[in-house]
TrEMBL record:
Similarity annotation: Belongs to the peptidase M14 family.
Residue intervals of the Peptidase M14 domain: 29-298
Organism listed in the record: Shewanella pneumatophori
Active site, renumbered: 273 (proton donor/acceptor)
Keyword Metal-binding: yes
Molecular function in Gene Ontology: hydrolase activity, acting on ester bonds; metallocarboxypeptidase activity; zinc ion binding
Protein name: M14 family metallocarboxypeptidase
GO biological process: proteolysis
Amino acid sequence: MDQQVYAIGVKGQKWGDAEKAQWLNVQSVKRSYQDEVLTKVNALKARFDVEQYGALSYDAERYPLFAVKSKNWDLTKPTILVTGGVHGYETSGVQGAIRFIETKAEQYAEQFNILVTPCISPWGYETINRWNPKAIDPNRSFYADSPAEESAALIKLLADLGVEIFAHIDLHETTDTDNSEFRPALAARDAVEHTNWNIPDGFYLVGDTINPQDAFQTAMIKSVEQVTHIAPADEDGKLIGVELSQFGVINYATKALGLCAGVTDAKYVTTTEVYPDSPLSDDENCILAQVAAITGGLDYLLSL
């Protein structure tokens, strides 16, 4: 796939404030955070502790940020963090996190403290965007003094809780709009050329290069295989240009890249990726795959 010319900016020149404002001006609300996320989260209050941990300054009333915690929080138990919607457009990350709470979380609450932030980027959810309104990618912004308030809010939540995270599962997906919109926009914003346009057809995991935890990743892949297909390697034996560490798994430098998966010092960390535009999948299948990844990982931890 050839480098695409994006409608905003001048090729070879990084965006300034004017280009970012032009980009923001063409964004629009396409779905409801209130209806599709907050209504479901509010319905959980009888069974879980639902706490607001912030609100986005773009519209604080419209975009409150919520965390869902298992009841009877016990500091002697390991704490599990599940994050969704770091990239707001990645629907199954958000809905998969909610579905896990609705259907499976209570089964693990005796052994673990469960903490879920189902939609870290609600503006991105509503406008179906990877970036926030400042054209910043929250999933490259999990570090001190983060320029993305979505990322900064999660960092503050975890600091305020003051608990050691035992495992962190960050839920993501890739859609065809990565090639039609998001990668071209990124190339234009940063004045760089992208050569890898590969979108794996199926589910895969991204572990931590420094701390890969292969058996943990294997358990999740085996669990997801019961629900949907695992992405095969490309003709170069890679996924998104990265060598496989095992079937369906690659590793990234999560902290160095500012990824959400690197926001804690958890021993067990992974990022999930599903592909809802696959002819072999659909939205519901992707949600179920996200849930299977979480439960597969937790079942493995219980076996240790």
